[in-house]
Each structure stands twice: as C-alpha cells, then as structure tokens.
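Kindly review this protein for my students:
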Amino acid sequence: MTETAPPSSSHSPAQTPLQNPLWDFSLAFYRQPQVADFLLQCQDVRGADVCLLLWASYTSACGRQLSEESWRVADRGLAPRRRMISSVRNLRRLVGRVKKNTGVYEWCKRCELRMEQRQLAALWKLNGESWPETRSPLELAGQQYGLLQKEQARWAGLIDAYSTCGEDSLRAVAGELPEGRSPGGSATS
C-alpha cells in the first residue's frame, strides 16, 4: 500500500477482514447522489462487477494506480463468487417484481450484501499486496467494461464530489464520526 491511502484512526473500531476501510468507503460512497445509479447501470448494461468498480473508486480516491496484472488477478479471483452473487441478485429481483414485501426478498437482499462484503474483503486483502502502479483504476475498469470516456469522466466526477464533500462523509470512511452520528449526518438511536 502506498502512503496516499487514507490514514487509519486510533479511534477506529477494530478492523476484521470483513470490516475494513474499503467496505466503509463502499457503503458511504454508494449512498452518495447518483453513485448507485451509475454503478448499477454499469452492472446491468455493461456487465460490470460493482465490487471491482468500488475498489477502483477507492483506489482512485486514494490517489493510487493499479497494474493490469493486479486488475486481472482481482477479476479472476472474484469470478466464482460473482456467479453466486448474480444468482441471488436475479432471485431477489424476481421476487421483488412479484411481491417485494416478503421475507424471501429481504433474505436475498441480506445474502447478496454479505457476499458483496466478502468480495470487498478479498479486494481489500489484494489492495495490501505490492503491485506496480502503472494505470488509472478507472481506465482499467473502462477498458474491461467498455465504458466510454464520458462515462469514465462522470465516474471520476462522482469520486471527486465524494472526496470533497462534507467532513462527516470523509471521517465516516476513516471511522472517525462522533458517537451517535451516522455517515449521512443523522442521529442514530
């Protein structure tokens, strides 16, 4: 990992493989305006892996680059679980079209989120490996998924907007929110 990664805080909760800065970033970034729509459009139209896009977003927000080799290793490593996630997502969407307010729909949603968390944990582990940093992660993702330059520019704009938004969002990624505050700024109970 390079020195451009976000500093860890002494106030951060203990990290586990599943609870890590990439997971925290992903949750906070995904909640930002237009981010979920963009990522889901890439997934549904271009066949993109949202977890890889979130990893590329995190890496870019940290000012890092990736190598083609690290991207290929990540993509291949996630492939088996990606198929399982896709199956659960398709079931959730089917159930949601029929009757969204059921226990099956909520179960599928929780299961999908847990599997995505495991994908991000694998990417976080890979993030700690030493790789040559030769290309923009957004460029690598764009190349793999056929994202046009204007789509890559929109994505970069979403990352920039997130990176420059309020202090609470940035501190939330580092695990430094005041007690009783959620990443969105509202009070928690």
Remarks:
- Residues 92 and 109 are 6 Å apart (CA to CA).
- Residues 21-173 form one domain.
- The first helix runs from residue 21 to 30.
- The chain has a mean pLDDT of 81.
